[in-house]
Design a protein that fits this description.
This protein is an alpha/beta fold. It contains 13 helices and twelve strands. The protein binds S-adenosylmethionine.
C-alpha cells in the first residue's frame, strides 16, 4: 500500500459527499456525469501543491480546471467535444468588474426586447444542418424563437467575444433548464424571467471566481483544449511545465449511455441545439463522445481507445504522477478487470487504499445502461494508478 488512509481522510469523505456543491462558475451548465466540485477540490488539495500541473484528459464541463485555478494549480484539459470545450473555456475565463456590469446593464435592456410574437432572424445554415431538430413543435417554438432573438441580440451587441460567449453560455443553461428532459416546456414569459435570473446568478459566480483567481501572486495557466486526449503527447505547450503531479479524470463509462451532446425534448426526441447555441459544429453521434458503442464491437473499441489514450498519457507522466479516475461500468464483473488490463498494457499499475477499492453509490444519475432498473452503474469506483516501476 503506498497511499495511507490517514493522509487522505478528507478526500475520502469528499468521495461520498452527497451535498450539492455549487458556487463560483460551477453552475454555468449542468454537464452530464460531471464531478462533484468537492471531489475535484479535495483530490487537488490532497495530491498536489500550488503551481503543480493537473491534467484532465476528459474534462467535460471543466470541473477539474475550475478547481485547479481556485487552488492555484496549473491545469490542462482535453475533450473531443466542442461543446465541452466551449463550456470549460467560459467557466475558466475571469471577467473584470467592468465586464460584469456591462453584462448586467445590457441584459436588463435586451431581455425586454424578446417577444415570441415578433419575427426572429432565422439561422438558415444551422436549420439546414438539423441543429434545430424538434424545436418547432407546439410547445417548443416560442422558446426556439426567444433563443434565436437572444443570439441575434448578443451578436449585434458589439461586445467582446469573451462577453458574447458568456451570454451564449447563459442561454445554453436556460435552454437546458427549459427543454432538456423537462415534463412541461415553460412559457416564453417564464423563459425570459429564468434567463435574467441565470445571468444574474452567473455574474455573481463569475465575480467570486474572478476575484479569487486575481489574487494569485504567480501566473497560473488554465488551458482547455478541444482535441482527443490520445493527442496529449503531441501537445507542445506541455514542454513549459514539469510532468503533471495529478491526472484527475472521469472517462466515458463503458456500456453506459450518457447524452453529453444532445438535449431530450419531452424526454424522448433529441436535439443538437446546444451546439447551435454555443456556435460550434458537432456532426457526431453518441459513440463518438462515449469512445465506442454499447454492443460487443463498441466495447472492444472502447477498451482499445482507453489503452491508446493512457499510453499517450503515460508519455507525459513521471514516477510521481498519480492518476485518479472516477468510473462506472454497466457490467463491472468483467469490465473492471478489462479496464485494469488496458491500464496495465498502457504502462500503469493500480494502487489500492488499505488493499481495497473505493466504491460510492450514485443517487439520481441520469444515464442508461443496456439493462433497465437498478444497474451496477449506479455505483462508481475511484481508481488510483501510477506508472509501472
Ligand atoms: C464523464 S464526462 C467528464 C465529466 C467531467 N469530469 C466534468 O466534471 O464535467 C467524459 C467526457 O469525455 C469526453 N470524451 C470522450 N471521448 C474522448 C476522447 N477520445 N478524448 C477526449 N475526451 C473525450 C466526452 O466528450 C465527455 O465530455
Amino acid at each position: 500500500m503506498i497511499i495511507k488512509t490517514s493522509d487522505i481522510n478528507t478526500f475520502l469523505e469528499a468521495v461520498n459527499d452527497r451535498s450539492h456543491v455549487s458556487g463560483y462558475t460551477h453552475d454555468f451548465y449542468n454537464y452530464p456525469a460531471r464531478f462533484s466540485p468537492l471531489f475535484a477540490r479535495e483530490a487537488i488539495k490532497t495530491f498536489t501543491k500550488p503551481e503543480d500541473l493537473v491534467i484532465d484528459p476528459f474534462m467535460g464541463g471543466g470541473t477539474t480546471l475550475v478547481e485547479a485555478n481556485l487552488a492555484k494549480r496549473n491545469a490542462i484539459g482535453f475533450d473531443i467535444s466542442s461543446l465541452a470545450y466551449f463550456i470549460s473555456k467560459v467557466k475558466t475565463t475571469p471577467l473584470s468588474s467592468g465586464e460584469i456590469s456591462f453584462i448586467e446593464k445590457w441584459t436588463d435592456k435586451s431581455i425586454k426586447k424578446l417577444n415570441c410574437q415578433f419575427n426572429s432572424y432565422r439561422p438558415e445554415i444551422w436549420i439546414d444542418k438539423g441543429y434545430q431538430r424538434n424545436l418547432s413543435n407546439k410547445s417548443t417554438w416560442p422558446i426556439r424563437k426567444l433563443m434565436e432573438q437572444f443570439i441575434n441580440e448578443i451578436e449585434s451587441s458589439g461586445a467582446t467575444i469573451k462577453i458574447r460567449h458568456f451570454l451564449r453560455c447563459a442561454l445554453l443553461k436556460t435552454g437546458q433548464w427549459a427543454l432538456d428532459s423537462t415534463k412541461e416546456i415553460p412559457s416564453a414569459q417564464l423563459f425570459r424571467y429564468k434567463l435574467l435570473e441565470i445571468i444574474n446568478q452567473m455574474c455573481a459566480g463569475a465575480e467570486d471566481y474572478s476575484s479569487m483567481v486575481k489574487k494569485h501572486e504567480n501566473e497560473i495557466n488554465i488551458i482547455p483544449i478541444n482535441k482527443p486526449s490520445v493527442e496529449i503527447s503531441r501537445f507542445k505547450k506541455l514542454k513549459h511545465f514539469d510532468a503533471p503531479k495529478l491526472v484527475l479524470t472521469s472517462p466515458p463509462y463503458p456500456g453506459v449511455h450518457v447524452l453529453y451532446h444532445r438535449w431530450q425534448i419531452h424526454g424522448r426526441r433529441e436535439t443538437p441545439a446546444p451546439f447551435w447555441i454555443a456556435d460550434n459544429l458537432d456532426g457526431h453521434g453518441l459513440t463518438h463522445y462515449a469512445m465506442g458503442g454499447r454492443n460487443q464491437k463498441g466495447l472492444t473499441n472502447y477498451f482499445q481507445n482507453i489503452e491508446d489514450t493512457f499510453n499517450a498519457i503515460a508519455k507525459v507522466c513521471n514516477s510521481e504522477t498519480l492518476i485518479v479516475q472516477m468510473l462506472a461500468f454497466s457490467e463491472p464483473e468483467w469490465q473492471l478487470p478489462r479496464y485494469l488490463e488496458a491500464m496495465e498494457v498502457a504502462g500503469f499499475q493500480e494502487k489500492l487504499i488499505n488493499e481495497s477499492r473505493i466504491w460510492r453509490e450514485v443517487p439520481n444519475r441520469k444515464w442508461y445502461t443496456q439493462k433497465k432498473g437498478n444497474t451496477p452503474s449506479s455505483k462508481e469506483v475511484v481508481l488510483f494508478h501510477k506508472l509501472t516501476s
